[in-house]
Design brief:
single chain, alpha+beta, two-stranded antiparallel ribbon, 8 helices, 8 strands
Amino acid sequence: MIDRLNEVLGSKAPSMTFMPESQIRQLYEEHVVSDKTEIVYEEVVRSFFGVTKGFQCGDVLVTKESLMKIYKPLNLKPKVFNEVLKAHDGVIEYGNLTKDERVIVIDRDTGEIVADEEGSNGTVNWDIDDFYKGEIITVHNHSGSTPFSAQDLYSFNRIIQTRMMTVQCHNGVIYSAYKPILHRYKDLTKEIVVKELLVLGRQVGISEKKGIEKKEAVVYEFLDELGWKLRKEGRHEHSDSSI
């Protein structure tokens, strides 16, 4: 960490021989985390948090390293990444206890919890003031381990401050949707989204696995047309290995 700071600061680097570790970490966050290269971002996350185990989803271990892959486009500060990690753990814990959804909304820059809502009857609702100036990350769980719902994507579009939305499934799979540019599609109405996605729920005679695969394909195509990025980490089958 000290070597990296000296490299970045050059002649401006202070003497860190007797500097408290907390102060060194603060300098590291201020001067190194701001570097947008993937190599430095990985170095920062590994330096602060390592790649030790994260949390358990049934038989699947969700590691910090797997979450790092998902959130890499956001170049999060370590303290924000830590809040995101806790959010994934928190929504899973709630889902395991209640079989319902919980959503945690985090400010991308500060790590502040902007909203924390608990759902019922398999759904959860949240909203953010249109005048909120920060960008947000939305984390929620799907106890049925399904991809984004129509309501999820409708909210992702409507709440313009949402830079990334992730669905933490209870089988260890994580779906993430990312907006490279913050933008709201005015013609993307809830009815259109429902028509495009929930039509799959009316299909009869297909297995649950096949239904999820078909829904995934529709969501991928849908988001690709809008210029949003969808990512999937992990797998649907339970395993003793990490995702």
